[in-house]
Amino acid sequence: MFFSDRIAAAQKIADALSDYHDKHPLVLAIPRGAVPMAKLIAEKLHGDLDVVLVRKLGAPGNPELAIGSVDESGWVYLTEYAAKAGADDNYIQHEVAAQLETIRRRRAQYTPAHPPTNPSGRIVIVIDDGLATGSTMIAALHALRNQNPAELICAVPVAPSETIKKLHGKADRIVCLSSPADFYAVGQVYRDFPQVGDDEVIACLTESTQSAKDQ
C-alpha cells in the first residue's frame, strides 16, 4: 500500500478507526511527523488531540539506529542488540539525559498552556507516521498503560511484521495499514514525505486547542 502523503495515510487510519467516532477518544501523536496526521484523525473521530513525548536512543556513531527509547517519566526501553551496537552503561546514561532534555524542551514548546492530557479512563489512540524498530512506540504505550486508559490503541500506516509482533500485549488493539515484506524505511510507502518542523507541530496543537474551546 502506498500513500500520497501523511494526510492521505491519516484519512485511511481514521476510516479504519471509524468505530470510535463520537466516543471522544484521546488521539496522541508521537512528534513530529505524526502530529498533522493525529490532528486530522482527532477531527474525524470527534476526539481530543495531544502529544505523547518519547525519544529514540541512538546507537554510538549511528544516531539513526535505535537501540531503545525513553519516555517523559524517564523510563528506558533497550533493544536486545544495544550492547552489541557499542552502547555501554555510560553511553546510555548520557544518551538518556540528552533525549530527556529534548523532551522537556518540546513539552515547553508544544503545550505551554496546559500539562499533558490525562489519559485515565479514556480511549487512547497513539499515532505515528510509521514504525521501524518500534522503540518509540513501545515507550509511548508503556507510559500510557501506566496511566490506566480504558482502551489503548496503536495506529500506524506502515511497520514491518516483526515490529508489530513486538507490540502484541502492549496495546489492546493494533492497526497497521501496510507491512511490506521488503521493508527498509518508513518513507518507502509515501510519495511525499517531508520533514515536519516544530512550527507546524505548534500550529496544529494551537488550532486544535482553539477549536475545542470554540465548541
From TrEMBL:
Origin: domain of life: Bacteria
CDD domains: PRTases_typeI
This protein's UniProt keywords: Transferase
Domain (Phosphoribosyltransferase) ranges: 10-189
MF (Gene Ontology): transferase activity
Keyword Zinc-finger: no
Pfam families documented for this protein: Pribosyltran
The protein's name: Phosphoribosyl transferase
